[in-house]
Specification:
Strand content: 15-25%
Number of domains: 1
CATH superfamily: Vaccinia Virus protein VP39
Largest sheet: 7 strands, mixed
Number of helices: 10
Bound molecules: S-adenosylmethionine
Shape: globular
CATH architecture: 3-Layer(aba) Sandwich
Length: about 270
Protein backbone atom coordinates (compact mmCIF):
# COMPACT_ATOMS: atom_id res chain seq x y z
CA UNK A 1 0.00 0.00 0.00
CA UNK A 2 2.71 2.47 0.93
CA UNK A 3 4.05 2.00 -2.62
CA UNK A 4 0.71 2.93 -4.26
CA UNK A 5 0.58 6.51 -5.49
CA UNK A 6 -2.20 8.25 -3.58
CA UNK A 7 -4.09 11.30 -4.79
CA UNK A 8 -3.86 14.38 -2.58
CA UNK A 9 -7.36 13.67 -1.28
CA UNK A 10 -6.52 10.05 -0.44
CA UNK A 11 -3.32 11.14 1.27
CA UNK A 12 -5.20 13.63 3.44
CA UNK A 13 -7.85 11.01 4.35
CA UNK A 14 -5.21 8.46 5.31
CA UNK A 15 -3.28 10.94 7.41
CA UNK A 16 -6.48 12.07 9.19
CA UNK A 17 -7.69 8.53 9.92
CA UNK A 18 -4.28 7.23 10.95
CA UNK A 19 -4.22 10.00 13.57
CA UNK A 20 -7.87 9.48 14.53
CA UNK A 21 -7.33 5.73 14.95
CA UNK A 22 -4.35 6.27 17.27
CA UNK A 23 -6.55 8.11 19.79
CA UNK A 24 -9.88 6.33 19.29
CA UNK A 25 -9.22 2.68 18.65
CA UNK A 26 -11.95 0.48 20.16
CA UNK A 27 -10.92 -2.10 22.72
CA UNK A 28 -12.36 -5.53 21.91
CA UNK A 29 -14.56 -5.45 24.98
CA UNK A 30 -15.96 -1.96 24.44
CA UNK A 31 -17.74 -2.75 21.15
CA UNK A 32 -21.50 -2.57 21.47
CA UNK A 33 -22.86 -5.78 20.00
CA UNK A 34 -26.52 -5.06 20.84
CA UNK A 35 -27.55 -4.32 17.19
CA UNK A 36 -26.58 -7.91 16.36
CA UNK A 37 -27.73 -9.56 19.61
CA UNK A 38 -31.15 -8.01 18.89
CA UNK A 39 -31.23 -10.32 15.85
CA UNK A 40 -29.35 -13.39 17.01
CA UNK A 41 -30.77 -13.52 20.54
CA UNK A 42 -34.17 -11.92 20.04
CA UNK A 43 -33.43 -8.64 21.83
CA UNK A 44 -34.98 -5.23 21.15
CA UNK A 45 -34.69 -4.24 17.45
CA UNK A 46 -34.34 -0.64 16.29
CA UNK A 47 -35.38 -0.46 12.63
CA UNK A 48 -35.67 3.34 12.97
CA UNK A 49 -31.93 3.73 13.56
CA UNK A 50 -29.86 3.58 10.35
CA UNK A 51 -26.78 2.16 12.13
CA UNK A 52 -28.87 -0.70 13.53
CA UNK A 53 -30.92 -1.19 10.34
CA UNK A 54 -27.74 -2.08 8.44
CA UNK A 55 -27.58 -5.32 10.47
CA UNK A 56 -31.24 -6.13 9.74
CA UNK A 57 -30.32 -6.12 6.03
CA UNK A 58 -27.22 -8.24 6.69
CA UNK A 59 -29.28 -10.66 8.79
CA UNK A 60 -32.03 -10.98 6.15
CA UNK A 61 -29.50 -11.80 3.40
CA UNK A 62 -27.40 -14.22 5.42
CA UNK A 63 -26.81 -17.80 4.40
CA UNK A 64 -24.02 -20.09 5.55
CA UNK A 65 -20.60 -19.52 4.02
CA UNK A 66 -21.51 -16.21 2.34
CA UNK A 67 -18.61 -13.81 1.80
CA UNK A 68 -19.14 -10.18 2.72
CA UNK A 69 -16.89 -7.22 1.93
CA UNK A 70 -16.86 -4.37 4.45
CA UNK A 71 -16.18 -1.43 2.14
CA UNK A 72 -14.02 1.04 4.07
CA UNK A 73 -13.93 -1.03 7.23
CA UNK A 74 -12.36 1.49 9.63
CA UNK A 75 -11.18 -0.21 12.84
CA UNK A 76 -13.35 -3.31 12.21
CA UNK A 77 -16.26 -2.78 14.61
CA UNK A 78 -18.96 -3.21 11.94
CA UNK A 79 -17.04 -6.15 10.47
CA UNK A 80 -17.05 -7.85 13.87
CA UNK A 81 -20.85 -7.55 13.98
CA UNK A 82 -21.14 -9.02 10.45
CA UNK A 83 -18.85 -11.88 11.51
CA UNK A 84 -21.04 -12.47 14.59
CA UNK A 85 -24.01 -12.97 12.24
CA UNK A 86 -21.90 -15.68 10.59
CA UNK A 87 -20.37 -14.03 7.50
CA UNK A 88 -16.86 -14.66 6.22
CA UNK A 89 -15.74 -11.03 6.30
CA UNK A 90 -13.09 -9.23 4.33
CA UNK A 91 -12.44 -5.55 4.62
CA UNK A 92 -10.20 -2.79 3.40
CA UNK A 93 -9.38 0.74 4.44
CA UNK A 94 -6.98 3.43 3.31
CA UNK A 95 -5.69 3.90 6.86
CA UNK A 96 -2.88 1.50 7.73
CA UNK A 97 -3.56 2.08 11.42
CA UNK A 98 -7.25 1.12 11.03
CA UNK A 99 -6.30 -2.05 9.14
CA UNK A 100 -3.83 -3.02 11.85
CA UNK A 101 -6.46 -2.45 14.56
CA UNK A 102 -9.12 -4.44 12.65
CA UNK A 103 -6.81 -7.42 12.11
CA UNK A 104 -5.83 -7.33 15.79
CA UNK A 105 -9.47 -7.14 16.87
CA UNK A 106 -10.35 -10.25 14.87
CA UNK A 107 -7.28 -12.04 16.20
CA UNK A 108 -8.27 -11.22 19.80
CA UNK A 109 -11.84 -12.35 19.23
CA UNK A 110 -10.69 -15.47 17.40
CA UNK A 111 -12.96 -14.60 14.45
CA UNK A 112 -12.39 -15.28 10.76
CA UNK A 113 -11.79 -12.05 8.90
CA UNK A 114 -9.05 -10.35 6.98
CA UNK A 115 -8.35 -6.70 6.35
CA UNK A 116 -6.14 -5.02 3.79
CA UNK A 117 -4.88 -1.56 3.18
CA UNK A 118 -6.33 -0.39 -0.15
CA UNK A 119 -8.26 2.45 -1.75
CA UNK A 120 -11.96 2.23 -2.63
CA UNK A 121 -11.08 3.51 -6.10
CA UNK A 122 -8.82 0.56 -7.02
CA UNK A 123 -9.27 -2.68 -5.09
CA UNK A 124 -7.07 -5.79 -4.94
CA UNK A 125 -9.88 -8.38 -5.22
CA UNK A 126 -10.85 -10.53 -8.19
CA UNK A 127 -13.99 -9.81 -10.25
CA UNK A 128 -17.23 -11.17 -8.75
CA UNK A 129 -15.62 -12.13 -5.42
CA UNK A 130 -18.56 -11.15 -3.19
CA UNK A 131 -22.28 -11.77 -2.87
CA UNK A 132 -22.67 -8.87 -0.48
CA UNK A 133 -20.92 -5.56 0.12
CA UNK A 134 -21.64 -3.31 3.09
CA UNK A 135 -20.31 0.20 3.61
CA UNK A 136 -20.97 2.54 6.52
CA UNK A 137 -20.14 6.24 6.15
CA UNK A 138 -17.61 5.62 3.41
CA UNK A 139 -18.85 6.80 -0.01
CA UNK A 140 -18.90 10.42 1.10
CA UNK A 141 -15.11 10.17 1.61
CA UNK A 142 -14.19 8.73 -1.79
CA UNK A 143 -14.30 9.26 -5.55
CA UNK A 144 -17.80 7.86 -6.09
CA UNK A 145 -17.66 7.03 -9.85
CA UNK A 146 -14.47 5.00 -9.33
CA UNK A 147 -15.68 3.36 -6.12
CA UNK A 148 -19.01 2.41 -7.73
CA UNK A 149 -17.19 0.85 -10.68
CA UNK A 150 -15.15 -1.25 -8.25
CA UNK A 151 -18.21 -2.19 -6.22
CA UNK A 152 -19.99 -3.36 -9.38
CA UNK A 153 -16.94 -5.31 -10.57
CA UNK A 154 -16.58 -7.16 -7.25
CA UNK A 155 -20.22 -8.22 -6.90
CA UNK A 156 -21.48 -11.49 -8.34
CA UNK A 157 -24.49 -11.17 -10.68
CA UNK A 158 -27.57 -10.70 -8.50
CA UNK A 159 -25.35 -9.62 -5.59
CA UNK A 160 -26.24 -6.62 -3.44
CA UNK A 161 -24.45 -3.67 -1.92
CA UNK A 162 -25.76 -1.62 1.01
CA UNK A 163 -24.31 1.79 1.81
CA UNK A 164 -25.35 3.95 4.77
CA UNK A 165 -24.53 7.55 3.86
CA UNK A 166 -25.32 11.14 4.83
CA UNK A 167 -27.18 12.87 2.00
CA UNK A 168 -27.89 16.38 0.93
CA UNK A 169 -31.29 17.71 2.05
CA UNK A 170 -31.31 21.05 0.22
CA UNK A 171 -33.53 23.06 2.58
CA UNK A 172 -31.90 21.88 5.82
CA UNK A 173 -28.43 22.19 4.37
CA UNK A 174 -29.12 25.69 3.12
CA UNK A 175 -30.25 26.67 6.61
CA UNK A 176 -27.30 24.88 8.22
CA UNK A 177 -24.89 26.83 6.04
CA UNK A 178 -26.32 30.28 6.63
CA UNK A 179 -23.86 32.60 8.33
CA UNK A 180 -25.88 32.91 11.50
CA UNK A 181 -26.31 29.15 12.06
CA UNK A 182 -22.64 28.53 11.29
CA UNK A 183 -21.67 31.22 13.78
CA UNK A 184 -23.76 29.62 16.55
CA UNK A 185 -22.90 25.99 15.65
CA UNK A 186 -19.54 25.97 13.83
CA UNK A 187 -18.68 22.89 11.77
CA UNK A 188 -14.94 22.71 11.41
CA UNK A 189 -12.62 19.94 10.32
CA UNK A 190 -12.05 18.16 13.59
CA UNK A 191 -10.87 14.87 15.01
CA UNK A 192 -13.31 15.36 17.84
CA UNK A 193 -16.35 15.58 15.55
CA UNK A 194 -14.91 13.16 13.00
CA UNK A 195 -15.12 15.55 10.04
CA UNK A 196 -12.42 15.51 7.38
CA UNK A 197 -11.67 18.33 5.00
CA UNK A 198 -12.79 16.34 1.92
CA UNK A 199 -15.98 14.62 3.01
CA UNK A 200 -19.28 15.81 1.57
CA UNK A 201 -22.86 14.60 1.61
CA UNK A 202 -24.11 12.59 -1.36
CA UNK A 203 -26.39 14.38 -3.83
CA UNK A 204 -28.39 13.63 -6.97
CA UNK A 205 -25.26 13.51 -9.15
CA UNK A 206 -23.93 10.63 -7.02
CA UNK A 207 -27.25 8.84 -7.34
CA UNK A 208 -27.03 9.21 -11.14
CA UNK A 209 -23.66 7.42 -10.98
CA UNK A 210 -25.26 4.56 -9.00
CA UNK A 211 -28.13 4.39 -11.48
CA UNK A 212 -25.71 4.17 -14.41
CA UNK A 213 -24.03 1.09 -12.88
CA UNK A 214 -26.72 -0.90 -11.06
CA UNK A 215 -29.87 -2.50 -12.44
CA UNK A 216 -31.92 -1.77 -9.34
CA UNK A 217 -31.64 0.85 -6.60
CA UNK A 218 -33.78 1.07 -3.52
CA UNK A 219 -33.45 3.88 -0.96
CA UNK A 220 -34.26 3.58 2.75
CA UNK A 221 -34.60 6.99 4.46
CA UNK A 222 -33.72 8.12 8.01
CA UNK A 223 -33.01 11.27 10.03
CA UNK A 224 -35.66 13.92 9.78
CA UNK A 225 -36.39 15.42 13.21
CA UNK A 226 -33.76 13.15 14.80
CA UNK A 227 -31.26 15.74 13.54
CA UNK A 228 -32.11 17.63 16.70
CA UNK A 229 -31.06 14.75 18.95
CA UNK A 230 -27.55 16.15 18.98
CA UNK A 231 -28.73 19.17 20.94
CA UNK A 232 -29.96 17.25 23.95
CA UNK A 233 -28.68 13.67 23.77
CA UNK A 234 -25.15 12.44 24.47
CA UNK A 235 -23.53 10.96 21.32
CA UNK A 236 -23.07 7.63 23.09
CA UNK A 237 -26.54 7.47 24.66
CA UNK A 238 -27.43 3.76 24.47
CA UNK A 239 -31.19 4.37 24.80
CA UNK A 240 -33.44 4.50 21.74
CA UNK A 241 -34.23 7.96 20.40
CA UNK A 242 -37.90 9.01 20.41
CA UNK A 243 -37.27 11.35 17.49
CA UNK A 244 -35.87 8.48 15.40
CA UNK A 245 -39.03 6.49 16.17
CA UNK A 246 -41.17 9.49 15.19
CA UNK A 247 -39.22 9.87 11.91
CA UNK A 248 -39.72 6.19 11.10
CA UNK A 249 -43.46 6.51 11.67
CA UNK A 250 -43.79 9.74 9.64
CA UNK A 251 -41.61 8.66 6.69
CA UNK A 252 -43.67 5.49 6.24
CA UNK A 253 -46.94 7.42 6.17
CA UNK A 254 -45.83 10.55 4.31
CA UNK A 255 -43.31 9.57 1.61
CA UNK A 256 -43.01 13.23 0.55
CA UNK A 257 -40.90 13.75 3.68
CA UNK A 258 -38.13 11.59 2.22
CA UNK A 259 -36.60 14.54 0.45
CA UNK A 260 -35.93 16.20 3.81
CA UNK A 261 -34.10 13.19 5.24
CA UNK A 262 -30.39 13.41 6.04
CA UNK A 263 -29.40 9.73 5.81
CA UNK A 264 -30.08 7.06 3.22
CA UNK A 265 -29.24 3.38 3.13
CA UNK A 266 -28.76 2.60 -0.56
CA UNK A 267 -29.59 -0.95 -1.59
CA UNK A 268 -27.94 -1.60 -4.96
CA UNK A 269 -28.53 -4.81 -6.92
CA UNK A 270 -26.20 -5.95 -9.71
C1 LIG B 1 -16.23 7.70 8.80
S1 LIG B 1 -15.04 6.42 8.66
C2 LIG B 1 -16.08 4.96 8.58
C3 LIG B 1 -15.32 3.70 8.89
C4 LIG B 1 -16.21 2.46 9.10
N1 LIG B 1 -16.99 2.14 7.96
C5 LIG B 1 -17.08 2.65 10.31
O1 LIG B 1 -18.30 2.78 10.18
O2 LIG B 1 -16.52 2.67 11.42
C6 LIG B 1 -14.46 6.62 7.00
C7 LIG B 1 -13.37 5.62 6.62
O3 LIG B 1 -13.04 5.77 5.26
C8 LIG B 1 -11.67 5.50 5.08
N2 LIG B 1 -11.31 6.07 3.77
C9 LIG B 1 -11.27 7.37 3.41
N3 LIG B 1 -10.96 7.48 2.09
C10 LIG B 1 -10.79 6.22 1.63
C11 LIG B 1 -10.45 5.67 0.36
N4 LIG B 1 -10.24 6.46 -0.71
N5 LIG B 1 -10.36 4.34 0.24
C12 LIG B 1 -10.57 3.53 1.32
N6 LIG B 1 -10.90 3.98 2.55
C13 LIG B 1 -11.01 5.32 2.70
C14 LIG B 1 -11.04 6.14 6.30
O4 LIG B 1 -9.75 5.68 6.59
C15 LIG B 1 -12.06 5.79 7.37
O5 LIG B 1 -11.74 4.58 8.02
Amino acid sequence: MSQIALTERQRREREYYDTYAKYNSPSSNSIDMSPVYALTEGGEKRPWNSYWAIYDFAWNHYSEGKALLDFGSGPGENALRFATIGYRVEGFDISEENVRIANKLFENKDCFGSFRCATAESLPYKDESFELIFGVDILHHVDIPKAMAECHRLLRPGGKAFFREPVDAPLFDWLRNTRIVRAVFPKDVSLENHITEDERKLDSSDEEVMESKFSNIKKHHYLLFARFDKFYREGADPNPSNLEKLDYFLIKRLPLLKKFCGVVIYELTK
